[in-house]
Amino acid sequence: MGSPKTAPRGGAGGTGSGRAAALPSPVLRLRGLGWGVGGATIVEDVSFEVQEGEFLAFIGPNGAGKTSLFNLVSGLNPATAGSIELDGADITARAAHARARLGLGRTFQTSSLWPAMTVADHVRLAAQAAGGGSYRIWRQAGAHTRQVVGALERTGLGHRAETPARDLSHGEKRKLELAVLLVGEPRLMLLDEPMAGVSAEEVPALTELIRSLHREEGRTVLMVEHHMDVLLGLADRLAVMHHGTLLALDTPQAVMADATVQQAYLGEEL
Ligand SMILES: Nc1ncnc2c1ncn2[C@@H]1O[C@H](COP(=O)(O)OP(=O)(O)OP(=O)(O)O)[C@@H](O)[C@H]1O
Q1: Which of 75, 85, 113, 153 is the most buried (most CB within 10 A)?
Q2: Which PANTHER family is this protein grouped with (predicted)?
Q3: Pocket residues for ligand 1 (CB within 6 Å)?
Q4: Does the residue 195 lie in any domain?
């Protein structure tokens, strides 16, 4: 399928944090990653590196393999080819929960909250699990209070602490999913369409939250997102997936000007 066009890692035209170039070894390295199911190849020969503090966004037409790639990196599906390294350690054969313990945090396209459980209890449970406890054993209420309060403050949900998840707006649910992720202080965050289902009015605040996690906290982020207006000014680099392969990997400006990428989106707005 050929190699994607790639640019040097690091900030893109002033859009990045600038931290990437200073650090020599990548947080994440994929080499020839592939996944097939039922005789069909879904992800094929994907290779790239992500530096500490970098924001890499994934775009591509529906069915291009973006979520499948995230499933491989987070360990939900086993790779059928290639390898995945986190901080230089080969994690290709590691289970999803082991990868999470190593600092690989993930959100999903569809909401994964318990409707009757309060915002604070979601975060408390995640803190308990991140601390090595089991989800099955509920520790005393009030445990992990500092972590819980911190995660809710960072995501702007402090005033919703005692609200059941079912009463949150879509944007607040997405923020809660981020709070659940943040309480484990992930080394690498994989966000799969965090704007999905969120009303247009709530998109700017959610975008700003993700921006602050990246810029102010220095989080390393991989994010699937269809809306280019969200990604411009947020992503250091754009990765374009097409038919399971990495078609291009470059600065947002270069990707948007790329004729091959335009061709992949034929008839669709990029
Ligand atoms: N478990 C599976 N079994 C069979 N086919 C699958 C499986 N998971 C994904 N696929 C197929 O793999 C292709 C890629 O799907 P994937 O969800 O990764 O694409 P995507 O780029 O994330 O799409 P979207 O933007 O619509 O979310 C699709 O054709 C999908 O039907």
Answers
A1: 75
A2: ABC TRANSPORTER ATP-BINDING PROTEIN, CONSERVED COMPONENT OF ABC TRANSPORTER FOR NATURAL AMINO ACIDS-RELATED
A3: 37-38, 42, 60, 62-68, 241
A4: no
